[in-house]
Design goal:
Strand content: 5-15%
Bound molecules: zinc ion
Strand order of the largest sheet: 1-2-3-4
Distance between the termini: 35 Å
CATH superfamily of the largest domain: TerB-like
Shape: globular
Number of strands: 4
Order of helices and strands: EEEEHHHHHHHHH
Structural class: alpha+beta
Number of domains: 2
CATH topology of the largest domain: TerB-like
CATH architecture of the largest domain: Orthogonal Bundle
């Protein structure tokens, strides 16, 4: 079943192609499927753009970005949502989501944002990312302008923690993590420092309970 429909076209600078391209605007109705047992249609539809040349998929904020190229990018997406999206892309990078990764994402979110992340919220974002076929690098390239150093640190922590939750890091995810440092302009030393900070989370009593 395809719940995605084409609703129009738009011009924008494609972060992949580096030039203005025609985008298909798509509208998808999210369902909690496959990884998140209940198969429930969720109320609001989610729109996104797909480049007709490279097939890269991007959020609707790409349009704002293109029309104000010379202005500093305003943060129109709350960071919490970016963090969620980042975790979802890396979880889906190797095609499967394990129970232990869901728990890891919930834990990382709680540690970094200080709020509880429900299974349904995470499921909705994973579903959307899956539907958009959005890759980690695509997402990071598109959104990196709106993050400061602290945001970047948190993104690395959340993504590293989630990707390594099952005790081993798959090849696909390892490649995505390597690209992460590069795209976010984080030096190797700083990256290692952040990973070490994140490994400290294993000492958190809440983690041991999970
Ligand atoms: Zn493109």
């Amino acid at each position: 079943m395809d719940w995605t429909s084409n609703v129009g076209n738009a011009f924008a600078i494609c972060p992949n192609c580096g030039i203005q391209q025609v985008f298909d605007q798509k509208s998808s109705r999210p369902f909690l499927t496959i990884y998140f047992i209940p198969c429930v249609p969720l109320g609001r539809t989610l729109d996104y753009l797909q480049c007709t040349v490279c097939n890269g998929t991007f959020g609707m904020e790409l349009l704002q970005l293109s029309t104000h190229v010379s202005q500093p990018m305003q943060s129109i997406v709350p960071f919490e949502e970016d963090l969620l999206r980042a975790m979802a892309t890396i979880m889906l990078e190797d095609g499967g989501i394990e129970e232990v990764e869901i728990a890891a994402a919930q834990f990382a979110y709680q540690r970094l944002i200080g709020k509880e992340l429900t299974r349904d919220e995470l499921g909705e974002v994973c579903d959307h990312v899956e539907r958009m076929k959005q890759t980690t690098t695509n997402f990071l390239r598109q959104a990196e302008d709106r993050w400061d150093d602290d945001h970047r640190r948190m993104l690395v922590q959340a993504m590293f923690w989630t990707a390594s939750a099952s005790g081993e890091i798959s090849q696909e995810r390892s490649a995505a993590l390597t690209a992460l440092g590069r795209i976010l302009s984080i030096s190797e030393d700083r990256f290692r420092e952040i990973v070490a900070m994140t490994l400290d989370w294993h000492n958190d009593p809440h983690h041991r309970l999970a």
